[in-house]
Write the structure tokens for this entry.
Amino acid sequence: MPDTNDTLPPEAQAALNAYQSMSESKKAYFSLLSEIDQKYREGGSPTIAENLQLEKLLGAHNEAVAAFNEAMQAVTELEVRELLLTRLMGEAGKH
């Protein structure tokens, strides 16, 4: 059984890293979306470059979600999965 005070086993650490990447890609996407929304509320409209960047960020986030799902499937041991989920809940509380 894994020690909760030590590092996660490699497959669980990979899933945690994938979760963190997914969180960052989500944050980047919503940050730009918020900027565009504010611009729209002030009477402006998004530029072609902003729309392309938004599309790029969404694509990156979709890739990060897929990587996270794949990494989670690799964590098959129940105790490791429970430890990972506990860590993920702690990570979610930080964002």
Residues 1-5 have pLDDT under 50 and may be disordered.
